[in-house]
Amino acid sequence: MKPRSTRTAQQVRAEFLRRGVSIGSWADAHGFSRASVNQVLTGRNAATMGTGHKIAVMLGLKDGEITESGHE
């Protein structure tokens, strides 16, 4: 599988502005708390596992896999 290119938090925010989407509405649409998404974007959540990891992968901040069970 070819790895995806990753983006920075600044690029993610710029894309949201370009599309006219708020961080909160993206969080709501994907079933995450607004605080969790903000923590990932600001770096307060390392996004190494759990919800933070899932948010980071979905936003394109990191290349990774999302598994439903959390185990490989």
What do you see in this structure?
The chain is 53% helix and 0% strand. The chain has 4 helices and no strands. 15% of the residues are buried. The protein has 72 residues and is mainly α. It has one domain (9-59).
List the helices and strands and how they pair.
Elements: H1 9-19, H2 23-30, H3 34-42, H4 50-59
Helix pairs in contact: 2-3, 3-4
Number of strands: 0
Low-confidence regions:
none
In what range is the share of β-strand residues?
Answer: under 5%
What is the string of helix and strand elements?
HHHH
Rg over C-alpha atoms, rounded to the nearest angstrom? 12 Å
Bin the helical content.
40-55%
What is the global morphology?
globular
Reported for the largest beta sheet, the result is: none
Overall pLDDT confidence: 91
Distance between the termini: 16 Å
Oligomeric state: single chain
What class would the helix/strand composition place it in?
A: mainly alpha
Query: What's the number of domains?
Result: 1
Helices, by number, come to 4
